[in-house]
Design a protein that fits this description.
The protein is an alpha/beta fold. Among the domains are: 161 residues, Rossmann fold (3-Layer(aba) Sandwich); 211 residues, pyruvate-formate lyase- activating enzyme (Alpha-Beta Horseshoe). It is built from 22 helices and 18 strands. Strands 2-1-3-4-5-6-7 form a seven-stranded mixed sheet, with helices on both faces. Strand 6 and strand 7 form a beta hairpin. Helix 11 packs parallel to helix 12 and helix 12 packs parallel to helix 14. The longest helix has 24 residues. The protein starts with a strand and ends in a 21-residue tail after the last helix. The relative contact order is 0.12.
């Protein structure tokens, strides 16, 4: 038996944003409790206290089952090797008992670092696995792979120290393992030699054998996922022959990115390739045949080059499958080529997400993002007129960021009135041009994060609060950080997208209420209880344990 473990690492990203949101909700709930009294507060919030699993359509890292786990599972299924999957963020805390069971039963545990930014996350996972396997399964072999390994081996990062810090693993595979993963697992299971497999490093006693040479496969060698396997094997111990089916599946239209944004390591980790249209449509057909209502294209950017996207969109449109499509796409391309909006509609695309990152031309030039942010509203109108949602992401804190550049970003956000937005605080990550050239950008790494000439990590909470207040009061835009990572925890299974949207809007208003009090140093506002009553009408329960309240402890004070 093989256990596949996917650590999403979501909770390690945007931790400043998560912190400021949780702190505000905690403050809000504490004030409500103090105002109405502990007994009444717990009576109103004690119903259905166990957090459920949202049934809304989810994309990217928020998908209940990741593409990585299905790709690896597809390879093992074709090799006839039985497996199970644990696929989530913070797997030790969320799935500790399931992980112990997998440790007991598995001969090999294959861990992906594809979504993990901080190596410490994987180190902690390895410690948990080894401390338990020493007691119940000392022969367990651990294999590490994924893009995290490549990033950590990057120039001026950890380099050769990687194997020392990840010494609890037995095998490492660097790069894209589509062609060798099945063979590698089989050899490990049988105790056979793996030295002649490209990109594989293993330990023999105290020696490290092999070279961390990056494997890359051709476009036609990228594994096509079979999403039907989630009905054959256990994913997070769920039986999808009985459990509600995930709404969306993920597929890759290719790998790599043709752009070179300074904050991103992806272009340096893997070359740019695109699959043939017939391969993509076959994968779409597989998604449809297996009962999914939608598909998320997980490549870095779908619309470029046009010599790829136009034929693929035309072919998808001819299929006329009842499958909703979501993809990353550049709005500036749609503004210049309006016919793309028609092709997207014909192909049943319902959402386009764009890395806007800033509304300041000055900041965008520094990021190496070459587009005019003032021309985004044309693309938004074209897409909205065809029933396609537009989501964007922004980064706060890039070198040169000031109140003026943030004001320009706010102007673009107000003008475009996007459907949803993901807010990121700047991360200076190894393997990115920003990290490698940090002296040129005037960046100093500190125990608290980073600092440059115009901003520091410790300034981010204030700017994040101001941005959320602005978006809530000046636009109709929902904040994805909240709708994906906060609001679903207030609901049981199979909640509708409309209820999530309403709940998110109320939570955004709650945050504004608390932060405006904080900023103005003011007292009580009469709307606090009204907001609480509105929240209770929409949500299934209040997950008090997530915000520092102990179940049943009526005298609990939140510090």
């Amino acid at each position: 038996m093989v256990s596949i473990v996917i650590e999403r690492g979501v909770s390690e990203k945007n931790n400043i944003l998560v912190y400021v949101i949780q702190k505000a909700i905690r403050s809000f709930l504490k004030s409500i409790k103090n105002e109405m009294g502990g007994k009444e507060f717990y009576r109103l919030t004690s119903k259905n206290r166990k957090a459920g699993k949202s049934g809304i359509a989810a994309h990217g890292l928020s998908q209940p089952i990741s593409l990585t786990s299905v790709l690896l599972g597809t390879i093992l299924d074709r090799e006839g090797i039985p497996f199970s999957v644990i696929d989530d963020d913070n797997v030790v805390n969320k799935h500790g008992e399931l992980l112990k069971f997998a440790i007991k039963k598995a001969s090999v545990m294959a861990i992906s670092t594809t979504y993990t930014v901080e190596m410490k996350t994987i180190e902690n996972l390895l410690k948990f696995i080894r401390s338990n396997s020493e007691k119940i399964n000392p022969g367990l072999k651990i294999l590490l792979g994924g893009q995290g390994l490549l990033s950590w081996m990057a120039k001026d990062s950890i380099g050769d120290k990687l194997f020392e810090q990840l010494k609890l693993a037995d095998y490492f595979v660097f790069g894209e393992a589509d062609k060798i993963f099945g063979s590698l697992i089989r050899r490990i299971l049988h105790g056979e030699n793996v030295s002649n497999l490209e990109g594989v490093v293993h330990k023999k006693g105290n020696k490290i054998i092999g070279s961390p040479k990056k494997i890359q496969v051709d476009a036609n060698e990228i594994m096509s996922p079979d999403w039907g396997i989630i009905k054959k094997y256990k994913f997070n111990n769920l039986d999808f022959t009985k459990e509600p089916y995930p709404g969306f599946a993920g597929i890759e239209e290719g790998r790599g990115c043709m752009f070179r944004c300074k904050f991103c390591s992806y272009p340096s980790l893997t070359k740019f390739r695109r699959k043939e249209a017939k391969v993509i449509t076959a994968e779409l057909q597989n998604v449809h045949n297996n009962g999914f209502r939608g598909v998320t294209f997980l490549g870095a950017e779908f619309l470029n080059p046009l010599t790829f996207s136009i034929p693929v969109l035309s072919e998808i449109g001819r299929l006329r499958l009842p499958v909703e499509c979501w993809a990353f796409g550049r709005l500036d391309v749609i503004s210049k080529r309006p016919e793309l909006a028609d092709l997207l509609k014909e192909a049943n695309f319902k959402t386009i997400q764009f890395g806007l990152e800033s509304g300041s031309r000055e900041i965008l030039v520094k990021m190496n993002k070459k587009f005019d942010p003032t021309n985004m509203d044309k693309a938004v109108r074209l897409l909205h007129d065809r029933g396609i949602q537009v989501k964007v992401s922004i980064i706060i804190g890039f070198p040169g960021e000031t109140k003026e550049t943030l004001k320009k970003t706010k102007n673009v956000l107000k003008k475009c009135n996007f459907d949803e937005i993901m807010i990121h605080g700047l991360s200076v990550l190894s393997g990115t041009p920003l990290y490698e050239n940090r002296q040129e950008f005037g960046i100093k790494l500190t125990p608290y994060g980073w600092a440059h000439g115009t901003m520091r990590t410790i300034d981010l909470p204030r700017h994040i609060r101001d941005m959320i207040i602005f978006l809530t009061k000046q636009t109709d835009t929902s904040i994805l950080n909240i709708s994906q990572n906060v609001t679903p925890k207030f609901f049981q299974s199979n909640v509708t997208e409309n209820r999530i949207k309403k709940g998110t809007k109320i939570i955004q208003s709650i945050l504004c209420h608390e932060w405006e009090n904080y900023r103005d140093n003011g007292g009580e506002k009469p709307c606090r209880m009204t907001l609480f009553e509105e929240l209770l009408k929409i949500v299934d329960f209040i997950p008090l344990e997530l915000y520092g309240f102990e179940k049943g402890n009526l005298d609990m004070e939140v510090s």
